[in-house]
Amino acid sequence: MALSIKQFKYKFLGSLPLILLFFISLNGNSIVDFELFSINLHYILVYYWILKKPNILGYGFIFLSGIISDVVFGFPLGINALTLLIIAGTAAYIRVVTVNINLINDWISFIPAIFIANFVYFISLYFSDYSIDYLYLFKNSIFTFAFYPILWGIFSMFLKFMD
Amino acid sequence: METSRDDVGIAIRSAFLKRGTQQRFSLLVLVLLSIAFIFIETIESKPLNYLRAFIKDSIYRGSLIVSSPSNGIRFIFDEAGEHINLYKEYNQLKQENEQLKNKISETDYLVLENTQLRRLIDEQIKFPEILVSSKVMLDKQSPYLNSFILNTGINAGIKNGMAALHGKNFIGRIVDVNFFSSRVLLISDLNSRIPVVIEPSGTHAILSGKGTDKASLEHFPENHKINEGDKVYTSGKEGIFSPGIPIGEVEFNNGKVETLFFSDLDQITYVNIVSANSKLNQ
User: Fold this and answer.
1) Is the CB of residue A14 less than 8 Å away from at least one CB of chain B?
2) Is the pLDDT of residue B1 over 60?
3) Sign of the four-CA dihedral B63, B66, B68, B72
């Protein structure tokens, strides 16, 4: 009985990151925009959970969430999906090659993840003939990187509670 | 060195090709699928358009449901704010009303004079026909694309390229039409380019969105006679919009000629969609 409650708790709490992933996509909150800075929650969420517990966010769901974001933001289908998968791919690669997992390692390896994802984003938008504010994208990348440790802490606490 | 290169190859293969536990797809397959989607977006065919319209309509409805709690909270805060500012607004409106009353007689005279002069030069006066009034269904205020979703689409006869008006003011154009929804690209967006005419000098220019509440005027002659406060209208040169739809007024900012919109693009609830092809001659 105790085991089944534990299993239920794990399953329920384990589905929350996935719910959050779809919620921010559908609600258009994947980029949290403040007066002076903005953060890409989508990137942090995908990167963290693929790095720590890859079975919680399936790649298929990440793809679907990206497609939803594309529709909600009015971009050609596939652009956000591709960038999120690049983030997931980088996180999966880091997971394979890293032995010692800690905040500093995660944080530093987040730099190439953001860089590659935004490069793909830029190329995709360029070929789709869409103009965006690239300075905004750059600032967004910087603040997403800067904000990572805060969400890392929150997610790690959640992960401890889950286990 | 060889070993290290092998290790990188193995790690990449492991990350992108292995499905892992509880993963139904490998990353590589999904990356290729995303790229295929991006390419398919450039293909225009009826079945694909129907499929796209169906997907987008479904996602918009889902988004509407998911955002309803946050919209509800925002609505409550807005309402509370409005109630708090009620007295201040009342006094402001009273003052504006007085000013408008004074202007009405002046405007009536100008309208009459304008109509008579137009008749005199035997000009066909064209009025855009309002096809449909739509409600803004989703306004996600994306940092990258200034646009919103309307609750009407093909079902109400909306087509790509039609002009969107807020009251009588031009605010954007339709860029994406689905069965029950459509997307308006606002004039403030970086991707928006509208041919305009600046009155009273009659100077033609292109109005380019900047992503802010002002747009810049470009491609006008060097020896222009544009003054601050001049009115900006659609020129109808591209053949899609009717000419003479008001957009905003000219403002000089550090030597740049900009346009301040007549409508506040953040405060739009209802939009009128018009087609340039539907013209009524007077």
Assistant:
1) no
2) no
3) negative
Strand partners, B129: B275
Min mean pLDDT across A9-18, B57-66, B112-121 is at: B112-121
Tell me whether residue B108 is in a domain: yes
Contact between A63 and B25 using a beta-carbon 8 Å cutoff: yes
Q: How far is A76 from chain B (nearest CA, A)?
A: 6
CATH number for the domain running over A14-31+38-162: 1.10.1760
Does the beta carbon of A82 lie under 8 angstroms from any beta carbon of chain B?
Answer: yes
CB B111 within 8 A of CB B261: no
Whole-complex ipTM: 0.87
Domain count within chain B: 2
Residue B200 preceded by cis peptide, ω within 30: yes
C-alpha span between B37 and B54 (Å, rounded): 15
Task: Please check whether residue B52 lies inside any domain of the structure.
Answer: no
Which residue in A59, A72, A81 is closest to B140 by CB distance?
A72
Boundaries of domain holding B112: 85-123
Tell me whether residue B186 is in a domain. yes
> How do the domains of chain A map onto residue ranges?
14-31+38-162
Quick check: B16 and A89 CB within 8 A? yes
What are B147-191's pLDDT values in tens digits? 889 988 888 888 888 889 888 888 999 998 999 999 999 998 888
> Would an 8 Å CB–CB cutoff place A127 in contact with chain B?
yes
* Residue for token pair 């690049």: A86
pLDDT tens, residue by residue, B102-138: 777 667 667 766 776 766 555 555 555 667 888 888 8
